[in-house]
Specification:
The chain is mainly α. 77% of the residues lie in helices and 4% in strands. It has 2 domains: 312 residues, ABC transporter transmembrane region fold (Up-down Bundle), CATH 1.20.1560; 52 residues, no CATH class. It contains 11 helices and 2 strands. A two-stranded antiparallel sheet has the order 1-2. Helix 7 runs antiparallel to helix 9 and helix 9 runs antiparallel to helix 10. The protein starts with a helix and ends with a helix.
Length: 382
């Protein structure tokens, strides 16, 4: 929830567009639910030998529904995927501006490749979670509730018996949720390691050539990629159990519907049109049930990515300069270091120790020394 709270200002900025997208999605789903009912009416009227005009009315009505479905689907694609792209753009700008405020001490503790990974791969996961994830979630919840209501409206007893296996999906969901979240985080962190290695090799390509380390770095890169594949396979194995089990449960529900519903049609307690519509609504449940697994995957990736981006956004420089303390270059007087000692994070030996320097205003100081003596560090301390 802390991650969502941080990103809520970006989401709320486009809430009007998102609401239009949600309305278009609900409108589309409602029309989709009308189709099995129209087919039910059509089949039930066939034994009465209707006229060609009546059959044409049903056909034109279905065609009209298809045209409205076309408009509705265009609407939710524009007004749900569009804002997610804009949100990604806004977060990226905020992330870049915040990175400019962080000091050298913070950057010394980070790897460049990891920062690049968070600004690219993790941000893409956030965008997919906000856009596609929210779309599937709303679609699945609405379709499940309404389809079950329509099934119960047609035949309560049959609906109860057919839906008995579905709670198995909820058990699977709560069993896998934490483990898949951990594995997704491990995958994203390892991808950051690969990005970091590539960045370091490109930045130090001359050193690699000078010390003939090309083959060694190739082996290291291949090893990291093999490990990345294995971590992804860990996630895939979890979904290899989760998704097929959901499909099996839905297949079991369909089998019960065909068996029990078929007996009701033969006995005359249920019309053929109602039987077809009932199975139509059951089939409409198939996508939301499978979509739960997909949105579950997007949610875990998105929340892990949000947390990694949030770690950067909440980071603060150790020295925060206030606007009141800012002075112009003309007002700067002498520069003086008194007993300056500096040690890089994670190092025991100080890079600078007991430095005493005074540079009067208007004078120039030259600093010389062997490699590693601290010339650059001293300059950066200014």
């Amino acid at each position: 929830m802390e991650n969502l709270r941080l990103f809520w200002p970006y989401i709320s900025k486009y809430q009007r567009e998102l609401m239009i997208g949600i309305v278009a999605l609900v409108f589309t789903d409602t029309l989709t639910l009308v189709v099995p009912w129209v087919i039910k009416k059509f089949i039930d009227v066939l034994p009465q030998k209707p006229s060609s005009e009546t059959l044409l009315e049903y056909t034109l009505f279905l065609l009209l529904i298809v045209l409205f479905l076309l408009v509705g689907r265009y609407g939710w694609r524009v007004y749900m995927f569009g804002p997610s792209r804009k949100i990604e753009f806004d977060i990226l700008n905020r992330l870049f501006n915040h990175l400019l405020t962080l000091d050298r001490t913070w950057y010394l503790k980070q790897k460049t490749g990891d920062i690049i990974s968070r600004a690219t791969n993790d941000l893409r996961a956030v965008r997919e979670f906000i856009g596609l994830g929210a779309l599937i979630l709303i679609d699945a919840v609405f379709m499940v509730i309404t389809a079950v209501v329509m099934m119960a409206w047609i035949n309560v007893d049959l609906a109860f018996k057919v839906l008995l296996p579905l709670p198995v999906i909820s058990v699977l969901f709560f069993y896998f949720v934490k483990e898949i979240g951990k594995r997704h985080k491990a995958v994203q962190e390892h991808l950051a390691l690969i990005t970091g290695l590539v960045q370091e090799n490109l930045a130090g390509i001359r050193v690699l050539h000078a010390f003939v380390q090309e083959e060694n770095q190739k082996r290291k890169f291949a090893s990291l990629n093999d490990e990345y594949i294995e971590k992804n396979l860990h996630v895939t194995r979890m979904f290899g159990i989760f998704t097929p089990t959901m499909v099996f449960v839905m297949g079991l529900a369909s089998m019960l519907s065909l068996w029990l519903g078929g007996k009701d049609v033969i006995s005359g307690s249920m019309t053929l049109g109602s039987f077809v519509a009932f199975n139509g609504y059951l089939m409409l449940l198939s996508w939301p049930m499978m979509g739960i697994g997909y949105v579950f995957n997007l949610t875990q990736k998105g929340m892990s990515a949000m947390n990694r981006i949030r770690e950067i956004l909440i980071a603060q420089p150790e020295i925060i300069s206030s606007k009141e303390s800012a002075v112009s270059v003309d007002e700067i007087g002498d520069i003086e270091f008194r007993d300056l000692t500096f040690c890089y994070p994670g190092e025991k030996k100080p890079s600078l120790d007991g430095i005493e320097i005074k540079v009067p205003k208007g004078h120039t100081l030259g600093v010389v020394g062997v490699i590693g003596s601290g010339k650059t560090t001293l300059t950066q301390m200014l």
